[in-house]
Amino acid sequence: MDAQRLFDLINSKEFGKEFADLNWQGSFRDYLNVVLERPEVARTAFQRVYDMIMTYGSKNYIEYKKEITHYNFFDDPHDNGKDAIFGLDVHLQKLVNVFKAAAQRYGPEKRVILLHGPVGSSKSTIARLLKKGLERYSKTPDGALYTYTWNNLADILEMEDVMPCPVHEEPLHLIPFEQRETVLTQLNQNRDRGKSVHIEGDTCPACRFVYRALMEHYKGSWDKVISNHIQVRRLVLSERDRVGIGTYQPKDEKNQDSTELTGDINYRKIAIYGSDSDPRAFNFDGEFNVANRGIIEFIEVLKLDVAFLYDLLTASQEHKIKPKKFAQCDIDEVIIGHTNEPEFRKLLGNEFMEALRDRTIKIDVPYITKLKEEIKIYEKDFNSVSVPHIHIAPHTLEMAAMWSILTRLEEPKKANLTLLQKLKLYNGKTSQQFTEDNIKELRKEAKREGMDGVSPRYIQDKISNALVLDKGAGCINPFIVLNELESGLKGHSLINNDEVRKHYKELLSDVKREYEDMVKHEVQRAISADESAIDKLCGNYIDNVKAYVQREKVRNPFTGADEEPDERLMRSIEEKIDIPESRKDDFRREIMNYIGALALDGKSFDFRTNERLHRALELKMFEDQKDTIKLTTLVSNVVDRETQAKIDVVKNRLIKNYGYCEICASDVLAFVASIFARGDVSKSDKDK
Q: Which carries the bigger pLDDT value, residue 609 or residue 598?
């Protein structure tokens, strides 16, 4: 590829067409035609945000007998999931319902939306997603919106010849109040309430000044003012260009100035126009002005000075702001803020802030409490693409996620339920003891679950540390990361309670034991992974069970003699799934009845469909084979060639079937071998 081909790729016809579409210009009459064809161009900010979310579609699913909607917008499909939100569907559904009600003008459009939750719970990410989504939506045909520019002013008003509306208003604001009702009646004929056009508010002070002066010049001819001086243009929202998307971040009290929100006097132009109350000598460039028609984000909103909060009250309830030395002017924007727990508690305790509390809709954004969703956060940041030079061993991210969720869960009130079992229930594992109703009850009784605990940021930082400290091994495993997590607790800036620190360390021990069980199971499955051998073992078991139930003999395949069913074989398998001696007859009859029912339907029995029996057969195979493989010899330095060959087979199975690399496969085999070696030692001690 040469430079010319790269140049041609950039300078494509599609790029030129998009530029033309986004820079459309026309008369006010042209714009009225656009509104007649597509009334959605005149939507309010809340309607536009809601429609933007809905264009990405949604899907419903049932969880704990409750229907939940997942909105695809929050997967951040345009940026390949860069700002995707995981595990918060219930809370995001509440947020979208607020937008929906506000779009229908049911009241929430007069409120400040407050995202409330602990540090690192994705409050800022949600706000960022909404802002960049709206920016992108405004470039599409469905999301198109328009504003206007004043032209040919120099000869009449002694000012610049061209003046874009400083707050990029809706062009329909130029329709006089007296004619609006008549115009809207015509526009909204045969349209339902959700798609009807509304004209709310007046022009900004600068446009009102120009409008009045031109009306005087043309002796009240609205037609001449609009035809000679108004040009409507397509409006593209952009945070970087400060058009329709604003962001305000609090500073220290000495440096906070309300003009940052509502605009300030242009002292250079006072000399030209002679007055600081002349709208031509004022910069309507505060964050409220900038965000008109779109969205404004208040970072740590409750850290604002009280004077700022008063501006916020009027902006939300009345949709008006008060620039210095001007009358209140209208705005149309979504006001969204976010705050952490301490500031919100301060708000609740401040009786002078009742007005703000009354005008706020709080949406909780807690930490994730579902393991598989938490894992997705770390898989997004740490994967073979982002970390190509270091292999991340299986279960490494899972164990880190498991610990982070355990720190967020409240101790269950049920005496027979551990915190780890609760985590597994939340993750979708059910049992005869705990049904969906029980899990629903567990969630209800835990009032603050997800509002405390360890932030995903801490986990990400420690995984990063582990990757950086990888001493040329080329692979990190769960123990490396868990040790990093533990060592970081001592200096964790948000943990200043020794009891909490001690509790978190105990949870790390629980996670390590869980990992130990998981890898033991994996190695056992790898050792007993000979499917043909398991098939043969299953066939042998079924033959013996059939003979036992029908009181028959079993033919020995080697001698040809009829023998009694092999009770020892059957019990050695049944014990693996905790079938007691007293229940063996019932269990065997159940197996035969099941096989018989399948036969009547023309189907054959497959042990793989029975998870418990499959597990029992694997464990039996493992018991039979572990001694021949002599896995415990891995902890010694002497391994004979035959044993090494068998170990290599198991290692290759771990690599091929479970995602291990050469390094971590060897490590996990050595680790599991040491566990069995300890087990053998303790067993021999008992025998003595």
A: 598
